Amino acid sequence: MDFSFEALIFFAVVFLLAAFIHGSIGFGFPMVATPLLALSTDIQTAIVLTLIPTLLVNLISIISEGNILVAARRHFSLALLAMLGSAVGTQILLTVNSDIFEVLLGVVIIIYLLAEKIKLKLSWIREQPKFSKFTFGLSAGIIGGLTNVMAPVLIIYSLESKYSKSDTVQASNLCFLLGKIIQIFLFFINGKFSLNEFSTSSAMFIVTSFALYGGIAVRNKIKGKAYQKILRLLLFILAIILLIQVSI
């Protein structure tokens, strides 16, 4: 697909915004970029365009928290489950319309945010760590493969597992990283990653780096309790965006 100059400028603005948000909270790059890109292209193309920059964003986010090898050992099993789920979700995306899954994701997020009001108990996440890791890792991957939005499921898992800010950022970005790698492979073998799209995605790789570092500088100043409030607000905004996007 060939892109006009105006479209490329729009893409650059979207990537700058998404990278800054991701840098500042450790989440949000594909979550912000995908629905905005989809305003001027289709969902598959939007996902393809985010693939290469997302690799950069995930790697830098993991490195920025330090203790990389420790984090990799601690969260690798969760990331492998997310990778497997992403492979399944991506294959479905290549053949089936994913609007219904975006609606489902939006509803699940709203239910979670209203959990305290409706007395929904999620203590089983901490009481059954192996089962919850399998459930959330696999489902995050599947939803990420379908919608390019893995973060909400992982945020819920991280909040209920009482992860620190550093663990939340590193675990989630490791899941994103392996999920994107398998997505790139599947899009490539299915002929969905053209040279023009690859070139555009690679160019945006450069654009995102500047905003990402600025966002990381902001994140280092955010305290733990404020960070959890920001994550919950982000979940709410995302749920609304998903539901509005599907209704348009």
TrEMBL record:
GO CC entries: plasma membrane
Topology relative to the membrane: Multi-pass membrane protein
Keywords from the named record: Cell membrane, Membrane, Transmembrane, Transmembrane helix, Transport
Membrane-crossing residue ranges in chain numbering: 7-31, 43-64, 100-115, 136-159, 171-189, 201-218, 230-247
Subcellular location: Cell membrane
Domain of life per record: Bacteria
PANTHER family membership: MEMBRANE TRANSPORTER PROTEIN-RELATED, TRANSMEMBRANE PROTEIN YFCA
Annotated family: Belongs to the 4-toluene sulfonate uptake permease (TSUP) (TC 2.A.102) family.
Official protein name in the record: Probable membrane transporter protein
Biological source species: SAR324 cluster bacterium
Organism lineage string: Bacteria, Deltaproteobacteria, SAR324 cluster
